[in-house]
Amino acid sequence: MDLPGCRAPGLGLPRPAAVHREEAPHAPVGAGRSDRPLRWAGRPAGIIAGCGGTADGMAGIELRSAAFNDHAFLPDRYAKAGENVSPPLAWSGVPGDTAELLLLCEDPDAPTGTFLHWLVTGIDPASTGVDSGQTPPGGRPHTNGFGEEGWGGPQPPVGDDAHRYFFRLYALPESLPLPEGATADDVREAAERAALADGTLVGRYQR
Questions:
Q1: What is the model's pTM?
Q2: Are the CB atoms for 86 and 133 separated by under 8 Å?
Q3: How many C-beta atoms lie closer than 10 Å to residue 159's C-beta?
Q4: What is the CA radius of gyration of the chain?
Q5: Cβ atoms of 54 and 8 closer than 8 Å
Q6: Which of 90, 151, 179, 184 has its CA 20 to 30 A from that of 14?
Q7: Could you tell me which residues are beta bridge partners of residue 200?
């Protein structure tokens, strides 16, 4: 069942060894699970949107997609075995004093720890979205958990329950410095500490 709702929520990442399946070892990309509690909002079913904000009152960015509803299934074309293109995204509510945006997509349900599917830094704070298969305006794509630059689509182990893919957008007051060897969890935690506002949209996928 699809559950519409929302979660109130210069980078030097090394290039990891090539990995071609989410179920394969990928220690440089993440360690441990990130099953953080979700905050559900009373959105009527069918609204194509996610929302942001944190429990401590941080302002929220509305993050949405024309390709899937929040907590609905991602179409096959965005999967690793499909066309492997990134889904379209749109956002609003970015604070005026934002220096840049950071976009992260991660799978906390991967068997060996949080798996990095997409990381883009330096995104133009005046931007309002990105088309399918494109890099957000002004953004710099980084290496994903498959050892490839840019988007790496879902590829959970066959037979697993549906994995969750958290698309997270952070409004930052300045570029976010991260230590050498930063994991997906490190990126998220550092961005959450620094962010002026954030938004989250969740897609699911199963094979």
A1: 0.76
A2: yes
A3: 7
A4: 15
A5: yes
A6: 90
A7: 51, 168
Q: Which of 105, 113, 136, 102 lies closest to 19 in space, CA to CA?
A: 113
Pairing assessment for the beta strands 59-60 and 197-205 based on DSSP bridges: parallel
What tokens appear for 27 in the block? Answer: 């220690």
Instruction: Indicate the DSSP class of residue 66.
Output: S
Q: How far apart are CA 155 and CA 110, in angstroms?
A: 10
CB 15 within 8 A of CB 143: yes
Structure tokens at 12: 């030097």
Element (H, E) at 189: helix 184-194
Q: What is the pLDDT of residues 86-115, one digit of tens each?
A: 999 999 999 999 999 999 999 999 999 999
- In degrees, rounded to 5, the angle at the alpha carbon of residue 6 between the alpha carbons of residues 38 and 24 is 65
Question: What integer is the mean pLDDT of 38-52?
Answer: 36
Residue 13 token pair: 């990442």
